[in-house]
Every structure is written in structure tokens, then in C-alpha cells.
Design goal:
By secondary structure, this protein is mostly helical. The chain has 9 helices and no strands. It is elongated and about 50 Å long. The termini are far apart. The N terminus is likely disordered.
């Protein structure tokens, strides 16, 4: 990023974002100062600046990239969001916390469903839901996302998948509410 200009062509100096001690802290600062519910362009600029602050930090690039994909998706650019996530998910993941990686996979599954790639979406979401190394909450998130997709074609298939997840030990208020 030359001369303080982001890849989007926007001036990175248009936002106030101090540099934190680490990429992880920088992401937390971005989330605090430029939340998802706030100004989307300012958030995008803050995430791009984070990438400029920590260019060699793979974990920070991943976390910022997932957030940028969310911005793309929320702006109606699902294909672009999927392309961004596909690159991140295909890259080196050794430095990425498993739960964060699972979060990105779930988002990509939902995006794939939005662009009509239902089989691919369900493959990803089912894979995440069966990953016992992930926290139960993340797995429940994947199960319920997959059930939402299945419900379009077959409410019974969606309910059956939720009941199977429950029998396999997943629980929680979100899963219980989905079954009810």
C-alpha cells in the first residue's frame, strides 16, 4: 500500500487508528472503534490499515480478511466475499486459531448458499459441525446454519439434522430453539 492509499483507492489517513502492540490487539481495537454495526467504509479502511501495520502477520491477515469478506457480503458482493474467504481458507493455517478458522468456514458456507452453491455450502457446514476439536458453540452454529439451508427444500430434513446433532452430544439454547 503505497503512500497511505488502500487497495480500494481510499486514503487510509481518513480514519483515526493508532497502532497497537500486536495484530490481535489491533483487530480488537478496530472492532471497538469501528464496529460491524457502524460506518462500513471506515471499518474497511481500518481493516486495510491493520493489514498495512502488520504485513507479515498471517493470523492478523486472516482475521482482517474474514472481516473484510463480511463487509463484502453485507454490501451485496457475495461472490467477492467467497473469493476472499476461499483464498484465506486455502492458505497456511498453522498460525490461525482453530475456532477462528471454523468461524471463517461457517461464513463461507453461508455465503456459498447465498450464491446458490448449496451442496458446497452443506459440505463445509457439515464438516465444521462434526469437528470435535472446535468449541461446541461453533459446531452448533454450523449445524443450525446447515439446517437453515436444508429447511428451504425440506423442513423435515432440517429438523432431522438438528436432532442427530443433539443425539451426538451437541446442545445449547440455539440448537434447542431450532429443534422446537
Amino acid at each position: 500500500l503505497a503512500q497511505g492509499v488502500a487497495s480500494s483507492g481510499k486514503d487510509l489517513h481518513a480514519i483515526d487508528l493508532p497502532k497497537a502492540d500486536s495484530g490481535k490487539k489491533e483487530i480488537e481495537l478496530v472492532d471497538q472503534l469501528y464496529p460491524e454495526t457502524g460506518n462500513q467504509e471506515s471499518r474497511r479502511l481500518a481493516l486495510e490499515r491493520t493489514l498495512a501495520y502488520f504485513p507479515g502477520d498471517g493470523a492478523t491477515a486472516f482475521r482482517a480478511g474474514v472481516r473484510l469478506a463480511a463487509l463484502d457480503w453485507n454490501a451485496g458482493r457475495a461472490e467477492r466475499a467467497h473469493e476472499r474467504l476461499a483464498k484465506l481458507l486455502a492458505g497456511e493455517s498453522a498460525d490461525i486459531e482453530h475456532g477462528i478458522f471454523g468461524w471463517a468456514e461457517i461464513m463461507d458456507g453461508r455465503i456459498l448458499a447465498d450464491i446458490g452453491k448449496i451442496t458446497d455450502a452443506l459440505d463445509i457446514l457439515d464438516h465444521v459441525s462434526r469437528d470435535s476439536a472446535l468449541p461446541p458453540g461453533r459446531r452448533v452454529e454450523a449445524v443450525t446454519a446447515a439446517a437453515d439451508i436444508r429447511a428451504v427444500e425440506s423442513p423435515q430434513a432440517a429438523l432431522d439434522s438438528l436432532r442427530i446433532a443433539s443425539k451426538n452430544g451437541l446442545s445449547g439454547s440455539i440448537l434447542e430453539a431450532a429443534i422446537a
